[in-house]
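Bit of a strange request maybe. I'm writing a small parser for structure token strings and I need a real example to test against, not something I typed by hand. Could someone generate the tokens for this chain?
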Amino acid sequence: MSPIVKQFPEIGCIECSALEQIKIPEVFYYAQNPVLNPIGPLVDQNTQVFRPRFVGALKRIFALCDQDRDGALSDAELNDLQVKCLHKPIQPSDIVDIKSLVAERSPEGVNDRGLTLTGFLFLHAIFIKTGHPETSWTMLRKFGYNNNVKLAEDLIPTAFKRAPDQSVELTNEAKAYLRGIIERRNSHSRCATFLRPQEIFDVFSTAAGRPWEREPYVDAAQKNPFGGWSIDGFLSMWAFATLLDPALSMENMINIGFPGDPSSAFRVTRERRLDRKKQQINRNVFQCFVFGPMKSGKSALLNSFLGRHFRDEYTSTIEDNYAVNVVDEPRGTKKTLVVREIPEGVSKLLLDKESLAACDVAVFVHDSSNSFSWERATELLEAVASHGKDTGFEVPCLIVAAKDDLNSCPMAKQNNIRVSQRMGIKATIPISSKSGDLNNVFRRIASAAEHPLPKLKRRRLA
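Reply from user aminoacidic:
Good idea to test on real output. This should exercise your parser:
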């Protein structure tokens, strides 16, 4: 073997003779194979380890082929995979040989149910080591991957066609599939109702990266003290991600092995304006915008929604902040509520004509012990109500009097009643995040979104 081949293992070497016509067909095969089926996107040439994207793709393919979800590919499932990729069945004797080879070199690769994920990965390692990456590439391309080992763009819509006041939600079929993921992972314990952080990582190991480990997702949902997600937390994060970026959510749904038509996992809701006109809300995910002056208690409200302890130290919110959780309704149904904290300055937000289109209910928080906080909150209420009226995207509004554990400022109650009556808003909701007295505020927010009052009365509050 020449020094250059030793230095660059991706370079193949084959001896031939044009005079004697020895291995001439193989030369042309090996010449085109690295171009058509490159090893670089599959294996790190320095470490000789599979690249994460390749591993994720193989895990997804394995999950899709494991139709009975028993963690192994049976003979029938291996045959189905062969037919899909090569359009011909695999011989029973070949299956026996494959499993014997894997069992000999990787004992964990085979069990009494068939070829395990470990064995499936090992099998592809053999393909590549023996100079047959085309086998892996054939499989990748049949399952929708391009030359960069990414799902082909034509499998994932770049945008969902919808009006500004429509949103995208998960269907019952998608939610059932996601619940099944948790149930399968918790089948070993009847008491295990949380997905541990490592299990969340495993769920997305077939996706490109970790989609919830960045803003605004990273701290948006409730976790247990060990960083685990409940079933409601897991589903609410999916609902939140779908609300913000449905195309990415569909890509992730495909990546984690959703078995059906990806479009059947999502639905576009009816326009909010039509919902309010008919007084019939058919959406399951509500988005609440929280407005209020600095130090009014907006962040504390969001933290209490996620069951977090109250913190006395103040931190200014510069960017939009989110909290998402499931709200239990009196009749036993569940709604997902996405609470979005808007920084005090709303002028930039209201420059956009459609800024309230995605809002199901607006909440205005003020510090009940501070008269200036109340005045500023009412200014924000009037600005938002006027913007909604002018643009046609009116939203139901609620007033929340935070810090109810402190002494209320004089005339606070009378002012609240006066504004509520003039604007046609329900009575102010007093809460104390510090003492934990939340007065069913989140259920009342969800109820206001689901049963909006008639249009706000557009009156100046002075």
